[in-house]
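lol forgot to send this yesterday, sorry. struct tokens for the thing we talked abt
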């Protein structure tokens, strides 16, 4: 089904849902979908053809049908409101709020690109290039990273970034970044991510002693939660990460490279299980 953040009209989401169900179950009908929403089949058809809007009392059922909650439900509500807005200004305001909920664009890693995650300093070098305007000064890059790396490591990082297309040469002879964020899938790639995360969490631990307090922000909480709270906190962390990425995209004059690590894990067993 269409991803919720790929569309600007909520009715496309409903139409995509219908088409997917019809593909999976050929006898699925407008009547069957209408029954779930509390609409007759002819009205639902007009909605899917963008000739009508959903009545307000049907919106909760529509979100339940699409399995939307949290950010996706909020996005859906904003699209509905924008769809029925009378003024162009109000519509634009609502659509701007909806767009703000979308995920940042991510670059999907391929098999050859796993080397990006072999060492923590490779993404750090990439961020540093943005910091210094794309100037490739191997000696300075190696010296400025925290902790410092060797010039050989810095040079290798540059070549890897070029190889996978996350930086490119520009006319001035400098390097420019391409996609801003990365995502990984698959068992082998997940293992590479875990390896990378172990490195950056170790750096976080080292920073407690090596980085002045006014240049870092590290804190911890020990919590007692139930399953519902655990699920909510996980969603809050995912939303926070998305907001961080969007805020970074808005940074116009970066003057430092930071590593943000978030960890939420059990430290006691209940009923013989961890968690």
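and heres what i got for the seq, position by position
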């Amino acid at each position: 089904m269409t991803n919720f953040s790929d569309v600007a009209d909520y009715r496309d989401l409903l139409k995509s849902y219908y088409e997917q169900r019809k593909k999976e179950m050929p006898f699925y009908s407008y009547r069957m979908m209408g029954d779930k929403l509390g609409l007759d089949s002819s009205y639902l058809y007009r909605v899917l053809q963008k000739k009508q809007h959903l009545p307000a009392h049907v919106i909760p059922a529509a979100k339940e049908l699409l399995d939307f909650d949290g950010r996706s439900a909020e996005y859906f509500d904003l699209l509905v409101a924008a769809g029925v807005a009378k003024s162009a200004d109000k519509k634009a305001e609502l659509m701007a709020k909806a767009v703000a909920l979308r995920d940042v664009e991510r670059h999907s890693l391929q098999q050859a690109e796993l080397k990006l995650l072999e060492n923590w300093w490779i993404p750090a070098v990439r961020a540093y290039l943005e910091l210094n305007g794309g100037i490739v000064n191997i000696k300075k890059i190696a010296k400025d990273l925290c902790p410092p790396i060797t010039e050989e490591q810095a040079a290798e990082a540059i070549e890897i970034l070029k190889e996978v297309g996350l930086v490119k040469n520009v006319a001035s002879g400098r390097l420019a970044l391409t996609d801003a964020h990365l995502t990984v899938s698959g068992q082998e790639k997940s293992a590479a991510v875990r390896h990378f995360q172990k490195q950056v969490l170790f750096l976080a631990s080292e920073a407690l002693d090596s980085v002045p307090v006014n240049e870092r922000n590290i804190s911890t909480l020990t919590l007692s939660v139930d399953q519902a709270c655990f699920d909510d906190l996980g969603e809050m962390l995912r939303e926070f990460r998305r907001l961080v990425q969007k805020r970074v995209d808005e940074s116009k004059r970066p003057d430092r490279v930071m590593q943000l690590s978030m960890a939420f894990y059990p430290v006691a067993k209940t009923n013989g299980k961890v968690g």
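The chain has a mean pLDDT of 85. anyway ping me if u want another try
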